[in-house]
Amino acid sequence: MGILYQRVLLKLSGEALAGEMGYGIDPLVLSRIAGELREVQDLGIQMAIVIGGGNIFRGLQAAAEGMDRATADYMGMLATVLNALALQDALEKAGLITRVCSAIEMPAVAEQYIRRRAIRHLEKGRVVIFAAGTGNPFFTTDTAAALRAVEIGAEVILKATKVDGVFSADPMIEPTAQHLPRLTYIEVLNRGLKVMDTTAITMCMDNRLPIVVFNLGRRGNIGRILMGEPIGSTVGALE
Asked: From the CA atom positions of the chain, what is the Rg in Å?
């Protein structure tokens, strides 16, 4: 079985970096993720990453508690930069060459995001970490992942979660929830399934960009997906 995708975008939630702590950054989790991405890179895959900031700050939650929404969202974007730098450090300790590209200019710590430069980094075998979301308030990092994936010509979005794909209900709450291995974009939207937000799903649908939702906690899942194994759930167009 050959490699199914050559250029991929991995969407990591900020919570994924917190591990069992539930907040902040767990160095052991960072190290494990970096080790797995090193194995993927060794396959010759071009890997880009969009990371959230929910382990440090959640803009929507702060806005719901009375903070100005735009201000809260900018704070959330800055939280993603902290996570991106931590991930960069872990990846470079694992022997990978990386670049952090920020949608908000901060030249002391990251490159400004420029599409053609980011693509060139991927072509040279560097792991590119996109930070600061889209650089605009009112857009989630899910939407940033869809936008960056389309811009760089990624063949798939790998959406890392804590469960084994998409279910008819939250399997953490409903043990009888049904696993849904294949879905169309329209099904996700009509059923209100929490895969990615509506804007991100719509962008993927318009560009026929598939999304694979998988459990990051099962070691080797990323590599198995890239080799074509039916891991997790795939959201795509009608076949």
From this structure: 17
Question: What is the CATH classification number for the domain harbouring 132?
Answer: 3.40.1160.10
Residue 2, domain member (yes or no): no
The count of structural domains within the chain is 1
Alpha carbon 215 to its chain centroid, in Å, reads: 12
Tokens 């902290």 locate to 82
Residue 236 phi/psi, 5-degree rounding, is -160, -165
- Residue 1 pLDDT: 57
SS3 205: helix
Residue 106 lies in a domain: yes
- Residue 1 within a domain: no
* Model pLDDT, residue 65: 87
Q: How confident is the model at residue 48 (pLDDT cuts 50, 70, 90)?
A: very high
Q: What is the pTM of this model?
A: 0.95
Residue numbers of the domain that contains 220: 7-236
Amino acid sitting at position 47: M
3-state secondary structure of 210: coil
